[in-house]
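Lecture 7 notes: from sequence to structure.
We start with the chain below.
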Amino acid sequence: MAQWDQNGNGAIDYDDGWTQADVDNVNYYCDYDENGVTDACEVHQCITDFENQYRDDMCPGYGHIACDCPF
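Predicted C-alpha cells for the same chain:
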C-alpha cells in the first residue's frame, strides 16, 4: 500500500502520481465500493481474494484464508 499511496492519504487514487491506466487497473480489481479510490482495507481484501483464488486454482482443497481488515 505504501508504494502505491505516494501522497500518504490512505488511498490509491489519481493524486498519487501514477498513470491513469495504473490507477484504473488497481481500482478495477480492488475498488470494492466503486468510489474511484482503493483504500487500505480494500487492498487487504483484494490480496486475500487473490490468495484464495490462487489456492482454488493451484491447491484445490487447501482451504481459504480469512482475516478482518487490520487497518
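Points to note: Residues 56 and 62 are 8 Å apart (CA to CA). Helices lie at 20-30, 40-58.
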